[in-house]
Design goal:
Blueprint: H1 2-26, H2 31-42, H3 48-65, H4 69-85
Helix pairs in contact: 1-4, 2-3, 2-4, 3-4
């Protein structure tokens, strides 16, 4: 039983550590990508998805200004997908 718990904990640790790195490679956090995302979001109809996307863009900008590029990329990715899921 303890081996199963340790194995599960190890899998969670590996997964959590890999997510920010993969997010940084997928979207890339740059001023150009943020501008593209903002213009796409502005074209979205008003609603819950647009509001969520705008919040994610704001968080991405804050992360980029703080030098946290993986967090920025994750928020940028979430912003681009917010309109598709709602």
């Amino acid at each position: 039983m303890i081996k199963k718990l340790l194995g599960a904990a190890a899998m969670v640790a590996v997964t959590c550590s890999a997510i920010p790195a993969s997010a940084a490679n997928m979207g890339g956090c740059s001023g150009e990508n943020l501008a593209k995302a903002e213009s796409s979001i502005e074209a979205m109809p008003d609603g819950e998805g647009k509001t969520m996307a705008q919040k994610e863009i704001a968080q991405a900008q804050d992360a980029m200004l703080g030098g946290k590029m993986s967090a920025c990329a994750m928020n940028l990715n979430k912003a681009m997908h917010a309109g598709m899921t709602k």
